[in-house]
Amino acid sequence: MDTTQLLKGVLDVAALAVIEQEDGYGYDVVRRLREAGLDDIAEASVYGTLRRLFNAGLLTSYVVASDAGPHRKYYGLNDIGRAQLTESRSQWEQFVKTMDAVLTKGSAA
Amino acid sequence: MNDTLVLGEGLTRDEYHRQVASELRYLPDAERNEILAEVNEHLAEVSSEGGDLVERLGTPQAYAEELVTAAGLTIGRNRDRAWWRTASNRIGDHRYIRSIGEFLPTLRPGWWVLRGFLALVALAVLMNGEPGLTWWGPLVPLPLLGGFDYPVSMVLLLGAIALSVAVGRRVAGKMARVVVVMANVAILALSGLALLAASDSISEPSSGYRFVPTSGLRHNGAPIRNIAVFGANGKPLSEVRLYDQDGNPITVNNPDVPSRLIVEPRDRFGVEYPNAFPLVVVDREGDFAEPWRQRLVTIPPLVDPKGETSKENNGTGPAD
Fold first, then answer.
1. Dihedral, CA atoms, B213, B217, B218, B219, nearest 10 degrees?
2. HEC string of B251-272?
3. DSSP 3-state assignment of A73?
């Protein structure tokens, strides 16, 4: 099953969760999502998602100089972002429960 | 700085960045610049790991599309529209604009009623060539359709308003909406032009209000087209030049008579005197076109026609 489509729906909550652990810049978020096992992630869409969450007022941002190259734009959660993450988490848990039930019933029949 | 660094067979970092930038050119400047700064950061990270940019990230076009889609700034097929949507969203996000946006829908029923009225005006224009507005009571202007009388027009007006409100409440679907918008534009254009043109010809309302024109020489509200002048002896005078209290020449508007049919007297230098009365109006054969000149050839003289009695005696009658 192609997980790229599945990922698109949950990239928001995944990015918020990663940033909740620790503030991060775009590529940092990409790397941490990869390390967590989301290999198929499209890098540009991570940057786009961060941009959208920031525009929606869920993230704070600040720029940090880097020795290696251009400045890095770090993102952190603000209160709205944290509230959104809490809500998304419970929605996700509910969704997983529902899907589990659907899939288990399907295999039992 | 990496302009010369060729990554595999693909694009250099700068080339890649430039092509992404060109894909995003329809975004508003501020948004675009912030995104491109991060793209620059991203490309620096990726190229520091080595490998081909296109192989790793896809073409710059695909990259831009992916980024903008995820950011909710969809370029889609019509880039101009995406740009417009972003711009209009930004305007729409403004505090005051948003409050107007929330307020406007409450005016919608009023617009439906007005549209019903304007639709009838537009229909009257199509049928009569003019709105033919009159008054229904002191408050309601009523367009009279050619051939229909007063009560029928009232019923038509109420019907048009009812229809407009019904349409307003039920419009659903994209096509229906497009049709309604087109109809609205047509109604507004037709009725607007007609009302503008007819704003000084609405007939007198029953309340007694009367539109007072501001231009042209008038007598009791009716336009004066010509002035007949008679001397004390009762004989018509010609080429009498009239001036007002400030020395400005007095002229009349003659919208019904083509100017070539009015012979304006000239002095010996060829200067025309449009304030010389009576105006000489001739038809194409050069004959006088105004019958009053034949009818009003003489009026009672102020002085004794014999010309011997002086003016002082006039009114008291002959002394002997």
1. 160
2. CCCCCCCCHHHEECCECCCCCE
3. strand
Average pLDDT (B255-276) is 70
The answer to whether the beta carbons of residues B139 and B132 sit under 8 Å apart is no
pLDDT digits (tens, 9 = 90+) for B1-28: 444 444 445 788 899 999 999 988 888 8
For chain B, counts of helices (H) and of strands (E): 10, 8
Do residues B132 and B144 make contact, with C-beta atoms less than 8 angstroms apart? Answer: yes
- Is the pTM higher than 0.90? no
Helices A26-35 and B29-48, packing angle to 10 deg: 50
Partner-chain contact A44 B40, CB within 8 Å: no
Q: Write the single-letter amino acid at A61.
A: S
- B87-118 burial, b at 16+ Cβ within 10 Å, e below that, comes to eeeeeeeeeeeeeeeeeeeeeeeebbebbbbb
Mean pLDDT, residues A41-56 taken together: 93
Q: Is B282 helix (H, G, I), strand (E, B) or coil?
A: strand
In the numeric block, the tokens 């000084």 are attached to: B200
User: Closest Cα of chain B to A107: distance in Å?
Assistant: 35
Counting one residue from chain A and one from chain B, the pairs whose CB atoms sit within 8 A come to 75
Q: What is the pLDDT of residue B21?
A: 92
